């Protein structure tokens, strides 16, 4: 069994309203010096595949469902 971590984040230049709202809320709570907050989605997927095939399967999952290739990028890492 292989465990893959899939990290999905917005591409540079894409607005991140959730991150902006989180930064504002942190500042209201008294945290100082926060330059920015970006949201990241992480999926942990368990596969019954050899490592090479698992990476390819996860990349296909991202292209078909998990990520929007227009505004997001993804990275697959095996644990």
SSE layout and pairing:
Layout: E1 2-10, H1 17-28, E2 40-47, H2 51-66, E3 72-78
Antiparallel strand pairs: 1-2, 1-3
**Helix/sheet category:** alpha+beta
Sheet with the most strands, sense and barrel status: 3 strands, antiparallel
Please mark out the parts with pLDDT under 50 across 5 or more consecutive residues, or reply none: none
Number of alpha- plus pi-helical segments: 2
Radius of gyration: 16 Å
> Helix share of residues?
25-40%
What is the CATH homology-level superfamily?
Phosphoribosylformylglycinamidine synthase subunit PurS
Could you please say which CATH topology applies here? Mth169, Chain: A
Shape: elongated
Please provide a written account of the structure:
The chain has helices at residues 17-28, 51-66; strands at residues 2-10, 40-47, 72-78. The chain is of the alpha+beta class and 79 residues long. Helices cover 35% and strands 30% of the residues. The protein has a single domain, classed as Mth169, Chain: A (2-Layer Sandwich), CATH 3.30.1280. It contains two helices and three strands; from the N terminus they run E-H-E-H-E. The model has no long low-confidence stretch (mean pLDDT 97). A three-stranded antiparallel sheet has the order 2-1-3, with helices on one face.
Gist of the model:
The protein has 79 residues and is of the alpha+beta class. Helices cover 35% and strands 30% of the residues.
Write a concise keyword list for the protein shown above.
single chain; 79 residues; alpha+beta; Mth169, Chain: A; 3-stranded antiparallel beta sheet; 2 helices; 3 strands; 30% strand
């Amino acid at each position: 069994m292989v465990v893959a971590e899939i990290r999905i984040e917005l591409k540079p230049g894409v607005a991140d309203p959730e991150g902006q709202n989180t930064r504002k809320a942190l500042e209201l709570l008294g945290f100082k010096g926060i330059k920015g907050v970006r949201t990241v989605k992480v999926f942990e997927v368990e596969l019954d595949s050899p490592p090479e095939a698992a990476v390819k399967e996860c990349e296909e999952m991202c292209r078909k469902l998990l990520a929007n290739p227009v505004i997001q990028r993804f990275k697959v890492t095996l644990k």
